[in-house]
């Protein structure tokens, strides 16, 4: 039974990682590629690590896997946001079918604190 549950987690994680690879190839611009790959690969790696924890059932492996999952879930979206913001202000064009762009092209000037 443990093998089945672990196999399901590993298979689902592998499918999400495959989906992120397809997203890199099929999405039209940097921003949609980055969004698709960040979300899908983070979830995929989390599921693979969860399957590893279920299979091995060891505290050392589980604690490391949980630490890696937390680290990925905290850092991957932040890194993608920063890279996307840098690309936007660096002049990387949006996809021509992008309808809403709420971010001004010029970086906002920070006001000095009182």
TrEMBL record:
Gene Ontology molecular function: sodium:proton antiporter activity
Superkingdom classification of source: Bacteria
Transmembrane helix in keyword set: yes
InterPro entries: PhaG_MnhG_YufB
Transmembrane parts of this sequence: 6-25, 37-56, 62-83
Pfam families reported for this sequence: PhaG_MnhG_YufB (PF03334)
Transmembrane in keyword set: yes
Keywords, ordered alphabetically: Membrane, Transmembrane, Transmembrane helix
Record protein name field: Monovalent cation/proton antiporter, MnhG/PhaG subunit
Taxonomic placement: Bacteria, Pseudomonadati, Chlorobiota, Chlorobiia, Chlorobiales
